[in-house]
């Protein structure tokens, strides 16, 4: 088989710093029998600075051709006043939409060594391992009509929540499949009490369940109650499936349960390509964190764990993924901490690159 191809898009803010650490990990696997053909390109503000667009058409075309894309982060205050159509985030949203990455997997896992870091009590989060499946290519993020229009003498902002049955069914299927590989429980979240799109969501998830996945334990929750339950007792959940906007909110909430946004990876998956691999983009859940960019303070673990997800979901290398996750666990157990994980311990944090080096050393060790 030919060497798998990987397109790296470091992006903005802390993106390039954390990606530099992922490169060390990729190189280590390359030296140890798992080589990748890596290319790198621009996205977000970095692409705007170079080309006047947050995603060049050539980059979009490359993303469609490779086996997987690995992205750092996009955005920053420097770009706040740009026209909406060329804002850094539009580059990321174009990738998600044109690659049709409808299923966004956001695991929230609490590493034992970090259970004290959560803002919640330790017994609420210790051992937590849940997976949020967020619909990523439709809903209010993309629905038409949208825009800011003039009505009489005032402006009106409009966005549309819109879901087709097939859009709901395909993300539901991917969530049921995941549940089968885990603890066989799926909770679907919407607002069927106030939104027609929520009623349809609940109906379609129920139909797919009855027809294809009746072995999986299915429950439904209103998304607001879901947020409350996620903070009250998150271990009641296994897999959660929800729409694009609720998934954006609930995944930030779930991420913070585990102590730091700097820990959480994500995978965005689409339909299988000709080679059988799914279209795929991997990225940390955290953003570009412009306040700490360029200072060596960023935690590279979320981005490194995103590469672990790539090993598992794109490259059939579950063993390598586990090896990498174990290396991360070991480094945390050895009490290495970047600034985001320091809390009140009052110790000196390690830098972004020291954390990356330690993870590579743990891989080798
Ligand atoms: C995320 C981010 C993005 C989103 C932004 C950067 C467009 O918050 O991936 O969760 O809203 O989807
Ligand atoms: Mg978000």
What would the keywords be for this entry?
365 residues, alpha/beta, Isopropylmalate Dehydrogenase, 2 domains, 10-stranded mixed sheet, two-stranded antiparallel sheet, 12 helices, 41% helix, binds 3-isopropylmalic acid, binds magnesium ion
Structural commentary:
The radius of gyration is 20 Å and the shape is globular. The two termini are 29 Å apart. It has twelve helices and twelve strands. The chain is α/β, with parallel strands linked by helices and 365 residues long. Helix 10 packs antiparallel against helix 11. The chain folds into two domains: 1-105 and 264-365, Isopropylmalate Dehydrogenase, CATH 3.40.718.10; 129-257, Isopropylmalate Dehydrogenase (3-Layer(aba) Sandwich). The longest helix is centred in the N-terminal third of the chain and has 17 residues, at 15-31. The relative contact order is 0.16.
């Amino acid at each position: 088989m030919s060497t798998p191809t990987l397109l790296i898009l470091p992006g903005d803010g802390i993106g390039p710093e954390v990606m530099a650490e992922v490169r060390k990990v990729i190189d280590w696997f390359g030296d140890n029998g798992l080589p990748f053909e890596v290319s790198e390109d621009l996205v977000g503000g970095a692409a705007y600075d170079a080309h006047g667009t947050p995603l060049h058409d050539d980059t979009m075309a490359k993303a469609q051709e490779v086996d997987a894309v690995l992205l750092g982060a996009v955005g920053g205050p420097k770009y706040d006043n740009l026209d909406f159509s060329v804002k850094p985030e539009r580059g990321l949203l174009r990738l998600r939409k044109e690659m049709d990455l409808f299923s966004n997997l956001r695991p929230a896992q609490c590493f034992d060594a970090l259970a004290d870091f959560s803002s919640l009590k330790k017994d609420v989060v210790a051992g937590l391992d849940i997976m949020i499946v967020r619909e990523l290519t439709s809903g209010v993020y993309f629905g038409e009509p949208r825009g800011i229009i003039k009505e009489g003498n005032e402006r009106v902002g409009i966005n549309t929540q819109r879901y087709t049955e097939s859009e709901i069914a395909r993300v539901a299927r991917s969530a049921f499949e995941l549940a089968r590989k885990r603890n066989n429980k799926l909770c679907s979240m919407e607002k069927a009490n106030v939104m027609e799109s929520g009623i349809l969501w609940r109906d379609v998830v129920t139909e797919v369940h009855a027809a294809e996945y009746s072995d999986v334990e299915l429950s439904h929750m209103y998304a607001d109650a879901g947020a409350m339950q996620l903070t009250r007792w998150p271990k009641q959940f296994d897999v959660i499936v929800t729409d694009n906007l609720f998934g954006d909110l609930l995944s930030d909430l779930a991420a913070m349960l585990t102590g730091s946004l700097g820990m959480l990876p994500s995978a965005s998956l689409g339909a299988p390509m000709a080679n059988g691999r799914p279209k795929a983009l991997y990225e940390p859940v955290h953003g570009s964190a412009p306040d700490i960019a360029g200072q060596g303070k960023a935690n590279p673990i979320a981005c490194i764990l995103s590469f672990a997800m790539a090993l598992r979901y794109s490259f059939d290398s579950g063993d390598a993924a586990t090896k990498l996750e174990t290396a991360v666990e070991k480094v945390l157990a050895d009490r290495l901490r970047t600034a985001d994980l320091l809390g009140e311990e009052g110790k000196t944090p390690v830098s972004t690159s020291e954390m990356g080096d330690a993870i590579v050393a743990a891989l080798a060790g």
